[in-house]
Specification:
Layout: H1 5-23, H2 25-59, H3 62-69, H4 75-87, H5 92-104, H6 109-118, H7 126-133, H8 135-160
Helix pairs in contact: 1-2, 2-5, 4-6, 6-8, 7-8
């Protein structure tokens, strides 16, 4: 019987926590408490992602994803992807689950890369960035980040040769 990577990883984490508990029980308690705080902090966005996955499974069929975001998709797919990346909230790794689901349904790698790269544009931070650096710099920087999200998407897709 072969163990999956998930089971092996979980076993290693449990062993580390047990060893930590033996060496310093208070440190283990603090570590578990901090993990719980972090988990509660990301739980809302995790719920949003799972709702999005549920809705995409309910309403979006692989043929539709492939048609709109797959091979041969047009400029509208780039615009939707980049705007989606800009307005997305939370940690990037939470979105990996949703993006993996869309990739399995036929979304191009270039659009996934563009989504992740365009997350660097943070709308809530724009006012304070403008305050410190001025309009010209922030406008140019934002345009560059959007342009480079497209360039990076195309380069990565070419490198990995995704369908």
């Amino acid at each position: 019987m072969r163990l999956s990577g998930n089971i092996i990883f979980l076993s290693i984490v449990i062993i580390i926590y047990l060893a930590l508990g033996i060496a310093d029980f208070n440190l283990m308690k603090l570590s578990i408490f901090n993990f719980g705080k972090l988990f509660l902090k990301i739980l809302p966005i995790l719920c949003v992602v799972f709702v999005l996955i549920f809705l995409s499974n309910l309403f979006l069929k692989p043929k539709e994803i492939a048609k709109h975001f797959g091979k041969g998709s047009g400029i509208l797919s780039w615009i939707i992807t980049i705007v989606g990346g800009i307005i997305s909230m939370g940690s990037a790794y939470i979105w990996y689950i949703f993006l993996k689901d869309l990739k399995q349904k036929g979304m191009k790698t270039s659009l996934i890369v563009a989504f992740l790269y365009s997350r660097a544009v943070k709308i809530p931070l724009l006012p304070i960035m403008i305050y410190y650096f001025g309009y010209p710099l922030i406008i140019i920087l934002t345009i560059y980040m959007i342009i480079f999200s497209i360039i990076n998407g195309l380069v990565v897709e070419r490198i990995v040769k995704s369908p």
